[in-house]
Amino acid sequence: MTVTAASTANAEPPPPAPPAEIRYSGEYAVNPLGDASFLHMCARLPSVLRRICRMAWQLDRTAVLLLAACQLVTGATAAVGLAAVARAMEPILGAGAVTDRLHQALPALLVVAGAAAVGRLSSALASYAGRRLTPPLTTCADTSLVEAVCRVEAAAYAQNGFADRQEAAEMGVVRTNVMVNDAQRFMAALIRMVAASGVLSVLHWAMLPLLLLAVLPAGAGAVLTARVDYEMHYANVSDRNVRHMMRWWATTPKHGDEVRANGMTGYLLFWYRSLSERIDRRLLDAAPRTLRITLLSSAAGGFFLLLAWAALAWLAITGRIDLAIAATAVVAVQTTLAALSQVVINGAALFHTSLYLTDMQTFLDDAAGRAPQRGELAAPATLEEIRIDDVVCQYPGKDRPAVDGVSLSLRRGEILAIVGENGSGKSTLLRLITGIYLADKGRVLWNGADLATLDQDSVWARTGLVPQLFAQWPLRVRENVTLGQPRTHDDLPVWEAIDAVGMREAVESLPDGVETLLAREVFGGAELSGGQWQRLACSRAIYRRPELLILDEPTSQMDARGEHQIFERIKRGAADRITIVVTHQLENTRLADRILVMDKGRVIEHGQYEDLVTSGGVFAELVALAKDR
Ligand SMILES: Nc1ncnc2c1ncn2[C@@H]1O[C@H](COP(=O)(O)OP(=O)(O)OP(=O)(O)O)[C@@H](O)[C@H]1O
User: PROSITE patterns recorded for this chain (predicted)?
Assistant: First the structure.
């Protein structure tokens, strides 16, 4: 069969490929809670309660004490109320005139009313204490997570699955919001249940075991359902993580032009919907399992409940308990049943929460294990020399090093340019020189001191970096210049840094000058052009007056005037520091004292511009290619 041009043109385009499915392998492939037995999981409840108590105690002791006292009072009032009901039943169901019987029951009824009032008051106070505890607990969990991620060795980000574990841990933060509530309700129900079942046992010993049998299946069902929910949550972690990232990329105005002008909207929406449907499908697939669990547990619970009521009727009919006691038993059964159900429901909720809290805790422990283990020596105040001795750095999962045996030495006042094709290891070498990554092999020495032995904060107090992908902070202009540096008492140094990159006019024309919020998405915020943002990133590094200034493609978005201005400024300040510039604009390397040419992680050429350009090597070839237009 021949396909004509017309029929090809009319043919429906093939459907787009769905989002790639992420499959775990290695250390994160196993769900740490996946193999835990039912009993093992239930046995964790006390430790979850202990952890919540410990966190709460550190934040607000008054609220914890108030909460504990109110719980006890609530339980005590439930017991007193029930005992008083039992006492009131006897005269009410006894013989004699109604008024006499009510009169006799009045003291007990007053106790019932008083106990109910005190119970309500204490549960209102308990709820107040819970509300007092929840916001600081959530903030504490949230900031611990953010801090843990900010403080890990940068190498952790390159670990497969690190971001997915973080996503799983985020749910722990969300659940922190409800955990005090869960714990409080669980404890309240437990105390109420103990009080009510005590009264019930006094009425007849057989009632409590029967009621327990009636609610236990519901408890088991709730816990099993929680486990299924958690399993699904776990299975969806990486898809949710990717969806979350893509949501930002698709909707942020920063990429709006690219999305629209490249006709990406349709595919992005298809992609987003497909991923959401895949997540939903996993949840829906689990629905029959949860239905089965609920039906079975309800049937078992219903059977035992029927048995409990039948037993009570039998005890009353056969005269084994008298009518007044039987009537009290009805109230006690109802109260105990309600309390037991609450114990079970809230116990399951607490159990559910504990699964997410465990993920959060596991991540925090993992992050703590990845915290920098460096020395405590302060970095030299004046950086005279950097020596790099045969350094090697290989990213996890890569089959060859990104930097492979580089040696080099740099002296104060020098400007070094690093060039090389994409992926040759330039940015990685910069990470090693600044101590963002520690070398797998070899050493980086600052004035003779190994970076691994120096306190990282003191090292980074001496560096200024303009990375290839610089951040456009949604902060005011001033903070965009001073971020990472203590605030000075006036704006003079800020304006100096702004002048250094030729941004005065642009900043002055903003609605609030240096006070202007650079986030168009926020009401009143302003936006800069790409080149202006890059100038601001340069001003940030210049403002720091660093001992080591590193610029990775610092002028890629700038006009010729801006580029000239920046390089002039670099030259002027070079005597007071060590400067390293990475650039693909080879003409810009003329300002450097030396040029390093990298290929596949190695240094393949090294020298001054005039020598390299005439040497017939890779540098000369790249310069010739740049001119061949
Ligand atoms: N965070 C990372 N995790 C894993 N691999 C990485 C990471 N960063 C870089 N790589 C890999 O290391 C190698 C060197 O990358 P690097 O960014 O150092 O090159 P580069 O010379 O700066 O490239 P370019 O000129 O494109 O900026 C590449 O193969 C890259 O895929």
Answer: ABC_TRANSPORTER_2
Q: In terms of domains, do 62 and 127 share one?
A: yes
Does one domain contain both 331 and 406?
no
Kindly calculate the radius of gyration of the chain based on its CA atoms and give it in whole angstroms: 35
Considering the domain boundaries, does residue 78 fall inside one? yes
Nearest CA to ligand 1 atom 25: 422
Q: Which is the closest atom of ligand 1 to the Cα of 425?
A: 18
The closest residue, in CA terms, to atom 7 on ligand 1 is 395
Same domain flag for 209 and 342: yes
Q: Which amino acid, one-letter code, is at 418?
A: I
What secondary structure does DSSP assign to 527-565, as a single string? ---HHHHHHHHHHHHHHT--SEEEEESTTTT--HHHHHH
The confidence score (pLDDT) of residue 223 equals 78
The verdict on 270 and 170 lying in the same domain is yes
Burial profile 435-456: b = 16 or more Cβ within 10 angstroms, e = fewer? bbbbbeebbbbbeebbbbebeb
Local structure of 578: helix, strand or coil: strand
- Does 461 fall in a domain? yes
Q: State the distance from the centre of ligand 1 to the C-alpha of 402, rounded, in angstroms.
A: 7
Greatest alpha-carbon span in the chain: 122
Q: Cβ < 6 Å from ligand 1: which residues?
A: 158, 395, 398, 402, 420, 422-428, 468
**In this structure, which residue's CA is closest to atom 12 in ligand 1?**
402
Tens digit of each residue's pLDDT (9 = 90 or more) over 466-507: 999 899 999 999 999 998 876 667 889 999 999 999 999 999
Question: Is residue 203 domain-shared with residue 238, that is, in the same domain?
Answer: yes
- Residues β-bridged to residue 549: 464, 579
Determine the residue of 153, 395, 580 to mutate for testing ligand 1's pocket, defined as the one with the most ligand atoms within 8 A of the Cβ atom: 395
Q: Domains in the chain: how many in total?
A: 2
pLDDT in tens, 417-451: 999 999 999 999 999 999 999 999 999 999 999 99
CATH of the domain at 590: 3.40.50.300
Pairwise CA distance, residues 550 & 29, whole Å: 38
What is the average pLDDT score of the chain? 86
What is the residue with the minimal CA distance to atom 24 of ligand 1? 422
Are residues 301 and 392 both part of a single domain?
Answer: no
Please state which of the ranges 208-217, 263-272, 557-566 shows the lowest mean pLDDT: 208-217
Has this prediction a pTM greater than 0.90?
A: no
Domain that holds residue 572: 385-470+528-535+544-627
Distance (angstroms) between ligand 1 centre and the Cα of 393 equals 11
Q: What is the mean pLDDT of residues 215-223?
A: 80
Residue 598 CA, closest ligand 1 atom number: 21
Distance 601 CA to ligand 1 centre (A): 10
pLDDT digits (tens, 9 = 90+) for 276-327: 999 999 999 999 999 999 999 999 988 988 888 888 888 888 888 777 777 7
Query: How far is ligand 1, taken at its centre, from the CA of residue 309, in Å?
Result: 72
Residues 358 and 426 placed together within one structural domain of the fold: no
